[in-house]
Amino acid sequence: MTMNSQGRPTTPSEAAPMTDISTVSGSRGLRQREDLIFETGDAGRTGVDLPDPKGTASRLGGVTRKRPTDLPGLSEPEAMRHYVRLSQQNYAIDLGLFPLGSCTMKHNPRLNEKTARMPGFADVHPLQPQATVQGALELIDQLATWLKTLTNMPAVAMSPKAGAHGEFCGMMAIRGALMARGEIETRKRVLVPASAHGTNPATAVQCGFVVDEIKADARGRVDMDDLRAKLEDSSDIAGIMLTNPNTCGLFETDIREIAELIHAAGGYFYCDGANFNAIVGRVRPGDLGVDAMHINLHKTFSTPHGGGGPGSGPTVLSEALADYAPVPFVVKDDDGFRLVEEVDGKGEDAFGRLCAFHGQMGMFVRALTYMLSHGADGLKQAAEDAVLNANYIQARLKTVMSPAFDGYCMHEALFSDAFAADGIDTLDIAKAMIDEGYHPMTMYFPLVVHGAMLIEPTETESKAELDRFCDAMLSIAEKAKAGDMSLKGAPYLAPMRRLDETQAARKPVLRWDKLAVAAE
């Protein structure tokens, strides 16, 4: 017996181009069209069927609403389908390569999630008696030991909730040290390279300092001549905030000399550790003269990044700043592990408490799980693979695209828009990536490169996936180089077409207005 007993054709006939196909439903194959929930729902519909309560008096005191709430009503299947369809329009690291540069969107092993949900970790409460959370405190202590070992720094503040929070912690520790020296009123100037993360100058200002920008040289690194000129009068220098590897995807090769110059000027060296994923296991920041550095657990040690959190930014501190770390921190004595809530003695100029409790427990569990499952050698290999992957992308794409700087890169490959024909810009290339099934890379950052395109594959991706991504990028780049103006209309295959970016930013429509929709 055969499946096709009626002679039906089994080979597909030649089809029209996909762009010529329209559907009555508005869907495109298995990708369902989905309207706003206000357009789908009906106030008279509900997924719950309950009778009006009898024999009960209102407890609202007469302040009942005078008109309907106009909230959309949906049945249970409709509500479920609405959110599932929306989820299918999201891009995620579990779906494909996430090329955002300077963001380290690496895969989060499911082992991490399993351990974070274990009883005793997932259900721990910050107000429990410390005797009942000894395992959680021991985990924090072990994680702190790993972080201090990997950075060769004697102290770490675990409570910062994110990268910028960690920056704030490090700069407040510097402020505390300057207060102890009696120089907080005279040392106000913080040097910040032009390629720094935008949070760096913002944090410095938030801590009461004045930002002095350092130029980038032709190699994409700190201009040492400009730095020396800034230090000719060093009486007001508080320190420097430098990212290494920097936002151009390059290692600051003069970092030891930079540290020596800053210390000789009486300042402190803050290093932005957002790109620690590129050097963990290979370079210890403490060996480079760094005084403070935050570490994004949600980037370097795999915990999910983006989507509003959760974040975690422990900040390691040198011997010069260790006494100015915030509370609380974990110590072990004869009675077990405990949190130190107050500091006496040399740390009296520390800024105290950074947040209500001791940090992000779920993040701590995930990060330590990642460390233990990889081991020291595995962490080193992850950094090496991240650098290898970025250089592979740079090597393939530079045949058409324009690398921003000569030579090898570190964890991310940076290109300019110089290769594109007149009329085609970085935004057009990024939008075309959506049609190819990829989230756009970081655009127009760092500011020191015109039309910047910053791509960071991390160690997550295989060579096959890197090739698939590079093939798509090269196809788009060839069109941009040839001046193909069809790129100006991309994306064509996304659920939504390109928005007017300026109007969307200046006049966003953020709420549903039934009367306005009815008028249209």
Annotation keywords:
520 residues; alpha/beta; seven-stranded mixed sheet; four-stranded antiparallel sheet; 13 strands; globular
Structure overview:
- By secondary structure, the protein is an alpha/beta fold.
- The chain has 14 helices and 13 strands.
- The protein has helices at 37-40, 76-87, 110-116, 134-151, 163-180, 199-206, 224-230, 255-264, 297-300, 361-397, 426-435, 463-482, 501-506, 514-519, and strands at 155-157, 189-193, 210-214, 237-243, 268-272, 292-294, 315-317, 329-333, 336-340, 402-403, 413-416, 442-443, 453-455.
- The strands form three sheets. The chain has a seven-stranded mixed beta sheet, sandwiched between helices.
- The longest helix has 37 residues, at 361-397.
- The protein is globular, with a radius of gyration of 27 Å.
Give start-end ranges of low-pLDDT stretches.
none
How far is it from the N-terminal to the C-terminal residue, by CA? 59 Å
Structural shape = globular
Largest sheet: 7 strands, mixed
Give the strand order, joined by hyphens, for the main sheet: 1-7-6-5-4-2-3
SSE string, helices as H and strands as E: HHHHEHEHEHEHEEHEEEHEEHEEHHH
Compact overview of the structure:
By secondary structure, the protein is α/β, with parallel strands linked by helices. 32% of the residues lie in helices and 10% in strands.
